[in-house]
Queue: 2 jobs
Job 1
Amino acid sequence: MIWSVGSTVLGAAIIVYGLVDIFLTLLHPHARGRMTRGIVSGVWHLTSGLGPRARAASGPLATLAVVLAWAIAQTLGWAFVYLPHIPQGFLYNEGIDPDRYVDFFEAVYISLVALSTVGFGEVIPTEPIIRILTPVQAVMGFALLTASATWLLQLFPTLGRRRSIALSLTILGRAGYPERLREMDPASAATVVLGVAQQIAEVRVDLSQSPESYYFREGEAPTSLGRALPVAVTLAREARASSSIDLVTAGTMLDDALEDLGACLRDNFGAHGESRADFIDSFARDHA
């Protein structure tokens, strides 16, 4: 009796832990589950010393590892719930001897079948509570599948915006725009600087709402924000040194956006240093 209750409680705890991690990662606007953070950070550090190709694959590998971990947590949790009811809580087709199988592995099999929603063929739950729980797990499995697919698809627009912003900054840098800023028409130059400030703010929001996107490295230098951010820093400095009030205002706004981005990198991604320049340099080392 004690073993049965203990197995059920352990299974329920694993299920709830996994669901909380999924909720915090997929639905909460700012928080992330501990399991997700640990896996993503672990894959990031593991691939950092394995060469450029491994580093470029760290983001996709991390997200896939997180989805797999969610599925494993639900599978094991429900397996522990089913374990006290095997085999007496199930009816097996003729010719199948449940005594041939280890109870725990049989529980994992039943849990996998229910979670994947493929349906039972040779085994049918007979205990009332199990007959209720298996469809509940099937619904959760379907929700997990669709939510994970949606999460992965949502990352690509975020990455696309970051690459587009990096490319815009790269083009400005190639043209020498920051250094020649004070030679430009103040009104048009202020518009450009304000546009860059808005783009930096978008990067900050994307990193806050989709922190997993930080761990996607770029394979091309022109679209690497780590390489391109110094252009924005120079642009802000030159704008603030202008005699035009419009440019000074735009430069201050861009400087504030960069300051906020640096704080985000420090607080959420462990950027090292004491100043904004240090945090941006840390980001550049990770992504350049």
Note: DSSP finds ten helices and two strands in the chain.
Job 2
Amino acid sequence: MAKDVVTPRLGWALTGSGHYFVECLTVMRRVPHLDIFVTKAAAEVIRMYRKEFELLPADTRIFKDTTASAAPVGNFYKGQYHALVVAPATSNTVAKAVCGISDTLATNVFAQAGKCRVPSIVFACDTAPEMDTEAPSGWVKVYPRRIDLENTERLKGFEYTTVVETLPDLEAAVDAALKAAGQG
């Protein structure tokens, strides 16, 4: 099968969560050969963090959720990705992934990565009964529902999927994926 890229890339799906969004962008800045999959909800969040988003590496490719069939997922079949990161992942994205629903760019690339045996790292937002998260107006306390916590636990049982719950765990998992691909 012909490949469109010589060096496998890291795919990164952004969802509509602001939870650790800026910190995820900081991690993304140090990733070589990065493709970003931006859902419609993520596009709304990006508007709030435009300056940070503009600091990504020059060779970063951005795919927006503009087609019903999520055409960019075809790159997974061509061997273009060594890993996928979904971070930050909303409870909606996690729930859809657990149920096998692929109706956004993020859930579609997650499903296709699994079908192509490309390892995925998911930084789930809802991981504890009580959490602090940063909103545009400052820090707020949130209380994830039982179903949100159960879905995060269920996702941990998926093949080729690593669920991380903290920013240091995300950084370590991304570093390990880059190292395994000979890029770190």
Note: Helices lie at 21-28, 40-46, 50-53, 74-77, 91-99, 105-115, 146-155, 167-180.
